[in-house]
Every structure is written in C-alpha cells, then in structure tokens.
C-alpha cells in the first residue's frame, strides 16, 4: 500500500480481520511451537502483495506459479488446500476466495489519505452557486464549478477542476476524480468516477443534409446506479428522449464509450476501450472483454461473455459465449479460426 496516497483508519488486530471475514480463530493455522501466539496482540501494519509479505503485514495467496519460496513470515489469506505451499511461519487465514477476502479488508480499513476535517471543505478557487445544496463532510477541490441547483449529498469527494452542470445530483459517499464533467446526470450513492471522464454529454445523433448537417437535441438524462465504478477517460452519453441507464455495481474500465439510450444492467463488467453504439442493452452480469464493439440496438443476454476485440452485429441470448469479427458463438469461432490455420 502506498502510504503517500492511502492510510489505515486505525489499529487493526488479527481478531478484527477475522471478524470481517467471519472466520473463527480456531481455523487460523499458526506454527505449532509458537507458544506466545496471542491474536489480540498481533496487529496489521500494512497491506502488501504476496511477494512483499513480512511480519505484521497482510496479503493473500492465489497464484501457484509465483515465486513464494522466499516469503517466510507475515499473515496471509489463502484457500485451505494451498496452505501446504506456504512457509510454516506464515499465519494462514482460510478463505474460499482470498482476493475477495483481501478486498473486504481493504474496503473496511483503508481510505484515501485526505487531510481535510469532517466539516465541509471548499477550496477558495472553487465556484459553488448559491442555490447548490451541499451535504455534510463534502470536499470540493480547486477550480471546480458547481452550478445552479446541484445536489451533493454527505461524505462525497469532488476533486479539482470538476464541472457539475445545473440540476445534477450526486449521492452519498461518491468520489469524482479531477477533470470530470457531469451534465444532465443523477449519480446514486457510492459511485466512483475516475479522472477526465465525461458523463451525460449530448449523444451522436444528427440529421444529415447536403448543405447543413445538424445535431439532434438530446433531452434525456443519465442515471447511474449505486456502487458503480467508472474508469478514467470514459464518455457516457445522455439519452435522446428517454434516459441512458447504468445499473448497480457495474464495473467500467478506462477509455470506454457508452452511446445514448444504452441500458447496462446490474453487475456488468466492461473492460478497457469497449465501445457501445446507441440503444445497446446488456442484461445483468454481462462481461465484455477489452476492445469489444457493439452495433446500435443490439441486446446481449444475461450472464453472457464477449471475448476481447470482438465486433458484435447481432443480438445473443442468455449465457452466450461470444467471440470473433463478426461475433458468433465462441465454439464456432474457434473452429473457424482453426480451419483457417490449416488452409
């Protein structure tokens, strides 16, 4: 953990970790000849990658291919069947999904290393309109512009050079990175938007004309569900008439574009450089690999997976495995690729 940017909220004991993971102390494996084992007196001082694991540091272990022979102490979350690969001096915490368990601990105890106090802190260079409603413990960074009738709820962090246009609403415990522009948008609680993303801008709808092509006014909005994470450099258009909708706990990587009137259901994952044309629907839990492109008005069924670099021109049903250009059932695509290599 880089302590220049992140900090541990308070002193964490081994018992605290076990409580978060719902693990009994009896399930923890420790060197049998350590007669001085007292879980109340073992503290976590840092969170590290496995290769950097040392005394009073916590990590997780999943990669059997990694070089783990030189790691000889510390506290590690691992699957029980993998304990045999770890040094006998390492304190071992059993958990079925070690990375998920480690993530739960980070979310519980690590925060951004902000030095502002609990009262609102608005940088002197920020411009906040008198009609904007600012909740408690809100930070607004340098040169940010908060326009008329914007609502920013409690415990939200607005970084520097952010622009939030009139009537937008930002929920509780949100994080808005530097350089973000937000228009015609409602962000529910715990939404995170990384640097230089643009939300709710006008979509690419136009009326072609030989003398004067004109953009169509977009009078819909953008609604983003609770817990959604949006990476850096993303662009998400507002709706033409109805709203563009992003569900709950959607994970959107860097440099993703989502066109107007798309509907991204809960728990979808969009890797870097994905591009969705207008009115695309992704049902719950769809996963898109990097550099996937999807044509307008396409629907991808619940739980489907689209391989990286695929170009999708047709809709697919629930639980599809999709790949290729043009995209098709992935088993058919693999057979096609294999046959082409033989020719």
Structural features, described:
The chain has 343 residues and is mainly beta. It folds into two domains: 107 residues, Udp-n-acetylmuramoylalanyl-d-glutamate--2,6- Diaminopimelate Ligase, Chain: A, domain 1; 158 residues, 3 Solenoid (UDP N-Acetylglucosamine Acyltransferase, domain 1). It has three helices and 41 strands. A twelve-stranded mixed β-sheet has the order 9-12-15-18-21-26-29-32-35-38-40-41, covered by helices on one side. It has a ten-stranded parallel β-sheet with strand order 10-13-16-19-22-27-30-33-36-39, with no helix packed on it. A nine-stranded parallel β-sheet has the order 11-14-17-20-25-28-31-34-37, with no helix packed on it. The model has no long low-confidence stretch (mean pLDDT 91).
Rounded mean pLDDT score: 91
Q: Which overall shape is indicated by the principal axes computed on the Cα atoms? A: flat
SS class: mainly beta
pLDDT < 50 runs, ≥5 residues: none
Tally of strands: 41
Determine and state the CATH class of the largest domain. Mainly Beta
Count of helical regions: 3
Tell me roughly what share of residues is in helical segments. Answer: under 10%
Q: What CATH architecture of the largest domain would you give? A: 3 Solenoid
Share of β-strand residues: 25-35%
Strand order of the largest sheet: 9-12-15-18-21-26-29-32-35-38-40-41
What do we call the CATH homologous superfamily of the largest domain? Hexapeptide repeat proteins
> Main beta sheet, described?
12 strands, mixed
- Could you say what the CATH topology of the largest domain is called? UDP N-Acetylglucosamine Acyltransferase, domain 1
Which value, in Å, is the CA radius of gyration?
Answer: 24 Å
Separation of the first and last Cα atoms: 51 Å
* Total tally of structural domains: 2
